[in-house]
Structures are given as C-alpha cells and as structure tokens.
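Narrative of activities, Objective 1.

The group set out to show that a structural description can be obtained from nothing but a protein's sequence at a throughput compatible with the screening campaign. Below is one input-output pair from the validation batch, recorded exactly as produced.
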Amino acid sequence: MNDADTGSASVRRTASGTSLAPMFAVLALYVAISGTLALALDSERCVHGAWAVCDQIRHLGLINYLIERPASFLDYPDPWLVATLPGFHLLVALIARLFGLAVLGADTWLRLVPFGLGLAAVWILWRIYRDLSNNSAYASLLCLPILWSSYFYLPSLYLLTENGAYLGYVFLLMAYLRFPRRGLVIGLAGAAMVFTRQVYLPVIASHLLVLAQRAPRGRFERGRILAVLLGALPPMAIVVVYALAWHGLVPPEVRDLHSGRTFVEFGPIAQAIGLLGVLAIPYGFLAYAALHRLDRRRIAAMVAIAVTAALVFWLLVPTTQDLDAGRDGSFLWSLASISPAIGEHALFTLPFLILGLIAGSIMLELARMLRYLPIELVMLALYVAAMSMQLLSYQRYSEVLMLITLSATAARLELPSGVGAAAFTTAYAAKLALTFLVQVSQ
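Output recorded for this entry:
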C-alpha cells in the first residue's frame, strides 16, 4: 500500500512493525475468551436474551437436513427459521458427512467450524491494521474491540453464520487495499460471503469505486473492466439463482412475515447511525492528535450540518420502540424504550444520532486530509443500505462491521499516546466485562 492509499505518512515509525508476537497474542486472547465462554454458557438451553444459543437451534435444523439431503440446498424445509442463504450450513453438513456424522447436537465438536472462521477473520484483520499502521502492537490493540464484542465471540462458539460472513468481508477489505485488480479472487470471496448471508451483496459495489479511484485520470482500460466483472458476477450469480428459486431474496415464508414493510425501512439506518456514535467515542482517545490538527472552521461546519441533519432525520423517522417493526435487541431501541418522547420520537435517541453523523463526517474529513479512499466506510455504508431493506435492526447485525471500520480508520492515523491507548482499552474492556456478565448470568 502506498501513502496515498493508506494515509501513512511519516508517522509510521516503530521497530515493532514486523513483529509477529502481537498477532499471536491476539489469537491467544481470542482462544481464551471463546474457551472461557464455552465452559460458562449452557448450549442445551434457550433462555431469554441468549440469542446465540437460541439461534443455533434453528440453524441445526437446516444443517441436519442438509446432512441427509445435501442436494436439496435450494429447497429446504421450514425456511422461515433461517432466512439466509445456506452456504455455511452446507459447509458444515458436508464436513459432517465426511466424518460420518448423521445428526448434530447442540454440543457437537463441529462448533469448531465457526471458531476457525473467526480465527481466520482475526488474523486478516490484524494484517490489515498492521499494514495500515506499520505497527504490530497497535494492530493488536485495534483488534481488541472486535474480539471483545459479544457479536463476534458468541458466533465463534455456536453454529451460526456470522463469522463466515465476517471472514468474507475482511478478506474483501484486504483485497481492496492490497490487490484490487485480482477480480476473480475478489469475486470468489464475495460469492462465499454472499452464500453465507445475502444481505452483504451490495458491499461488492465497493470494488468499482476502488478501481475507478486507482485508474489513471480519464482512463478505465479493459483490464479494470474485466476485474470489475470478475469481482461482481460470482456473488450476483448466486443471488440470482436463489431469487429465481424463491421468487425473491428470502424464502417465501419469511417474505410473508414482513409483507407490511416498505421498500426502505429507516429503523435500521437510525440504529446504525446511533450505534456508530456510541462506538466511536473511545476511538477519540486514539485519534486525538489527528483531530487536533483538523481545521476548526471545517469542524464547526461539520458539527452544524450533522446537528441539522440529525434533527431532520429524528423528526421524520419514528424512534420509539416498536416491536412490530422489528426494533429490538439494540442499544438505540433499548434507550428509546425508557426515553420520554414527543409523539413517535424518543428524546434520548437524538444525541446519539448527532454523534453518529459527526463521527461519520470526521472520518470523511480525515480521509480528505490524508488523501486516501475510505473504502472501509464505503463498505459499511453499502451494508447499512442493504440492511435498510428489511425491518429488523438488531445490534448484532452491524456492531462488528462498525468496529472493523472504526479500527481501520484509526490505523491510518499516527500512533496514539500511552494515555490515549490506555483510555481506549479501558473503555472497551468495560464493555466486555458488562456483556460477559450478562451472558454468563442468563
């Protein structure tokens, strides 16, 4: 990666840039967290709030069906239980058949499959952050919020689809940064990601922007067009096959459950903006030096625009908790449930919408100042746009991707002070402790 791509000027300068010890420390931490929780959580019992335990029951049904009938992946029973494409389920089913397993139970050792996918995703993330920052220790620090998210370590313990999608997502991010013209590799990675969760399909459009940004001015030669096609066609082909089989992007039974929704739902967008505002706060400790150098007049203008846009969005979009609209299981909607409201607009949600828009604006301003394409932010925006086409706005659908995005942005900046790194680590360690206590107490 060159300086224009990564924003890495003369601020990358430590000997730890080539050390692998921090990477092994991160992977060991991932193993330790997952192992501890595997012993603490009851995989046989579905209890209130233990979403991973409950969801595994549903996914096991499809996996066991595909073990018996692997050729029936286009038309599986009870599809309303699993709305995603069956790529992950088919993978586990084929592994089970390879080892002669006819039926999987809640404690099957094949729960190591999502664990392995998560391990690969962590390794790639560490490589991305190391390449962007040229500092191994800082790369490890930036991995911690992802490792410490319950929406990452819980899918590492159960037969769930999240880690498979995350692996495809972070591989694409690395590919866009390091080898954007290898279209077929990108296309196959995108196909695997989409075959796991079809909502990730719009993320593939990032490839066009990457290639256009790297093309000589006024030129877009044949090789780049071919790279775009090879990158886009494999995942699109998978979605088209299922759209023809299901007469839509989800099984018919799932579509019937959401027959009242509009084409674009603003609830998931509000959830994403508010969550970004919350998660970005600790990153301010890492970005303090870069933020201090931003032009104050531009900052004032960005804040004014963010406040105005957030207020308009808040007035137009209902932000009271509405379970019929799928708004549940997230920070923003939990906050809305205890907030005073003006009509359908919860007062407590407005400050976090403002914070989210300010955080996004600052990320764009940093990219402009350091002259790099914020591809991680583009990927996140495309994913949120896809999420807006469904009702549900559970926090687990977007938290990990936001943390990946925030860490990638921070990796492009100069190294933080020891105080900043300590404050950042403390904030996310507190988040880990809180969510860990909630999980083990259920």
